[in-house]
Amino acid sequence: MQDTNPLLKRENTHRLKAIPFHLFKTEHFLPAIKASLEEAKAEVEAIRNNPEPPTFENTILALDMSGELLGHVSRIYFNLHSAESGPELKALAQEISPLLSQFSSSISTDPKIFERVQAVYKAEVEGKPKPAIPEDLKDKEALKAAERYRLIERNYKSFIRGGALLDDEDKKRYTEISMELSKLSPQFSNHVLQAINKFELHVTDPKDVEGMPATALAHAAHTAKLKGKEGGWLFTLQPASFVPLLTYCRNRELREKIHRANGSKAFNDEFDNQDIIKQTLKLRKEKAALLGFDTHADYVISERMAESKENVQEFLDRIHKIAMPAALKEVEQVQDFARELDGLDELMPWDFGYYSNKLKEKLYDFDPEELRPWFKVENVLEGLFIVAEHIYGIKVKQVDDVPTYHPDVTTWEVHDRDGSYLGLMYMDLFPRDTKRGGAWMTSFQSQGLHSDGLRRPMVSIVASLTPSTPEQPSLLRIDEVRTIFHEFGHALHGLLADGYYSGLSGTGVLWDFVELPSQIMENWLYEKEALDLFARHYETGEPLPQELLEKMIAAKNFQSGVANVTQVRYANLDLAWHTTDPESIQDINKFEDAAIEPYRFLPIVDGYNMSCSFGHIFAGGYSAGYYSYKWAEALEADAWSIFKEKGIFDPDTANSFRENILARGNAFHPMDLFVAFAGRKPDPDALLKRDGLI
């Protein structure tokens, strides 16, 4: 099969070297992984046994470029695992993940390879001054020299964190732990998806959906038809389906039913994730202990901007101290309003979104649903690319000759202002049963040096937005538009990468810095100067009325206290899981309730458990790192204040952000990059000021 396996073919005649998704079948993946794994092992073995003295080129760079085919195949597999996979493809993860984990551990724990890496580190980095960011960012040689230093440093540290200093017995156990963890993550994710796919709320009585917007009902009716239901409306646990129900449906019983279902995914059901959580926590704790750390959080945060869990806790506590009193007042205001409006004496979680929206309408004469006609998905994409062109001078053009893995996926070429090719972007925006929920940006190919020279990136944006129906195009909620802007910010971090070594390129930065490019992109969505470029009514072409825009901006900080405390709650729950001895955690639900109690402003709901579907920390890259969203948001609020001061399309500010942040990837420490852009260190209170809390 190796000769005919399309995943292993190196020749690619497509003009963009695009991935031939149309040729791949499930049965191709495991043989391709195994064959490319053998090739990667041979490449590493050649580095290991090189008789020449270790140098940057024959050791650090050789390691960075080894396993190119394996990386190519595995990225395709895991991206499809998340975005487009049936049970058979998903099941392969239980075999593929341990193979890759074992291979990775075999490198980081190999004493001969580490000896070579350490020799280069001592010769070129240890005791040497860290290169500063060149004043002239067009000085490619100076940048390359700085990247060289950083790549050596990062490789050396990754070996230490990968078990290089352990004795043989501990190395063996480290590898076993890594392999076990690699199986648990996809299991957790699959359970959540199965729970989402199983739940259906079929409603046939029109009285039950009173208050629901026509757009949401059209979507629900279309879903019912697709699922073979006899009339009525079908609601699911996809955000595009259940969020409008919780926000608008007058039927409190239905709101409660879907809220309870969403809040109990993979908890005490056939897809229960409690044992997976317990196993994961114990293995993470043991792995951290092997490496000399007290907790998994200590291990993770030691390689972040924040540097220590104490710094993270101090940061979160500061937000909590300021935001919690505001949040309690906001909740009390909603409770009073619900009592006045409907005689409701106890505000429950399934009531909060509904009455908050009603209160927003009263206070600002504004309902976000009013905005949908101005945000048809095709117009949003066109507008997003126009805004990006105004900021960075880039041009995004849809192309139809690139193979995709699903008919919903669209493809886009991105070019710089001088016409040079920047990269290829896939967009996969609508929900389906074969895709996990949520939204994310991912990469099929990073920018930087490959075996055939410098390559440009291939990135992808995946989401679960409101789809079109036969009767109506896809009209987006404002939070869905924000999602597209957010993920495109991540995509720009990949597309505008301008490094030399792919191991330092694009979004591969310290994790609490990675959300800065995505979150800053959201700001343009709330600026008249940007919205005037694209927000047009999908039927009349009328621009977004000034009055509606002013209402949207006025309501932007509505319940900012609640929003901040909610994120702090998630971050502290994450820290609690990863700073507590797992042996002391007997009851998953009781532990969660105790951990979030200081951040709670609504009554406890029996049977609700967030952790069992908290994919960010148990199936993603955010374990002991969920705080990164708020951390990066604080950086973003400060960075955005500079854009606001200079002008949101000011070319000098935009070019500085592009060259110092987006283009540099992980070539320098994030603090150095921020200072290079802003001319100073970040203002720790910028976020609280922006949200109107101080």
Describe this structure in words.
By secondary structure, the protein is α+β, with helices and mostly antiparallel strands. It folds into four domains: 6-108 and 110-161, Neurolysin, domain 3 (Orthogonal Bundle); 199-263, no CATH class; 274-366 and 560-626, Neurolysin, domain 3; 373-554 and 629-690, Orthogonal Bundle (Neurolysin, domain 3). It has helices at residues 26-48, 56-65, 68-83, 87-91, 93-108, 111-124, 140-161, 168-198, 214-226, 239-248, 252-263, 274-290, 296-301, 309-342, 349-364, 377-392, 478-495, 516-521, 528-531, 546-554, 560-579, 588-596, 615-618, 628-646, 651-662, 670-678, 686-690; strands at 201-203, 233-235, 395-399, 410-415, 421-428, 440-445, 448-450, 453-455, 458-462. Strands 3-4-5-9-6 form a five-stranded mixed beta sheet, sandwiched between helices. A two-stranded antiparallel sheet has the order 1-2. A two-stranded antiparallel ribbon has the order 7-8. α14 (309-342) packs across α21, α16 (377-392) packs across α17 (478-495) and α25 packs antiparallel against α26. It is globular.
Task: Write out key terms for the chains shown.
694 residues; Neurolysin, domain 3; two-stranded antiparallel ribbon; globular; five-stranded mixed sheet
Low-confidence stretches: none
Extended strand count: 9
Indicate the CATH class of the largest domain. Mainly Alpha
> Any idea what the CATH architecture of the largest domain is?
Orthogonal Bundle
Helix count equals: 27
Morphology call: globular
Q: What name does CATH use for the topology of the largest domain? A: Neurolysin, domain 3
Biggest sheet details: 5 strands, mixed
